[in-house]
Amino acid sequence: MEVDPNRRLSAIGQALAILGDRWVLLILQRALVREVRTFAGWRDTLPISESVLASRLKDLVGAGMLTPVPHRDGRTRHEYRLTARGSGVWPLIVAIHSWEREWAGRDCPTLIHESCGGEAGPYLACGTCGTPMSARDTETVRGPHATFAGIGLPRRRRRTARPDDDLDALGYRPDSMEILGDRWSTMVLAAALLGTRRFVAFQAELGVAPSVLTDRLRRFVERGVLRQAAGDYRLTEKGLAFFEVCAVLVHWAQEEFTAPPGSGLVITHRPCGAALTPVLACAVCDRPLHRRDVRFPPPPLGTAAGSAGSPAVLVSSGRTRAFPSPCGSRRAHDP
């Protein structure tokens, strides 16, 4: 997963070289949400082999996301602490969680905002004017050298998506991994968000083999991310809502990585005219969410803890409520 400097990848390409893998996202998620720091901690809470876990931890250390330090108990070889770069992924983890809860039928934990005591129900807001926003409120301009060749990476691992019933309360659904866990899928969605609609246009933009493109478009249609109409592939509300995840990812990538000049994206919030600084805000108090102010509540007494190795504290309360969707409307929400 180390980025080859000869590839001259864009910042987004460098970010996906690190994060475009299910196990990496789950390792970081456990570190950020459960504060897991040891090899045994990840091994015992994820259905992952020791060899794969060791490989991913090595990759994350090499990418500057984790740093190993001697463990204070004298028996454990190391613990792995999040660096500033690794901690910066927290908004992405929350954005994925929010999208899955809203659109992928997740019975997942409810986020509690400690500052107001309410269910956070994160929504995307503009960091300049503070108003809720969606993909429809933005305009994206690519730099003169911002091509999809600067994003794409050779896939170095087999796809790691698993069946729905093989996941615990925090495990990612195949819907998310269909987008983030495969480089061509990520690029197809990015092209769709930039306005690409026709098969030949996707092929010209991405330089992808027709058979691969056909497969990815079919999967997105089956999962309700795209719909096909009159020869076009258009984003559904579910697909448009993934803009929240993409906006957070792009912002983190372009803050963290040095890239060739002209290879970046500028996303503008049209209502205020400012370059987008995405903020995840609380649906109850409308204040920005920060990692130390958000927690997962314990479940009601008698609630099952989900799969083996999943602490009961991470099980959803199962309540039904409404809060702003990423597109700004209020939508009935059934966790």
From TrEMBL:
Pfam families: HxlR (PF01638). One of its GO terms (molecular function) is DNA binding. Keywords: DNA-binding, Transcription, Transcription regulation. The keyword Transcription applies. PROSITE patterns: HTH_HXLR. SUPFAM superfamilies: Winged helix' DNA-binding domain. Residues 10-108, 170-261 form the HTH hxlR-type domain. PANTHER family: TRANSCRIPTIONAL REGULATOR, MARR FAMILY (PTHR33204), TRANSCRIPTIONAL REGULATORY PROTEIN (PTHR33204:SF18). This is HxlR family transcriptional regulator. The lineage of its organism: Bacteria, Bacillati, Actinomycetota, Actinomycetes, Streptosporangiales.
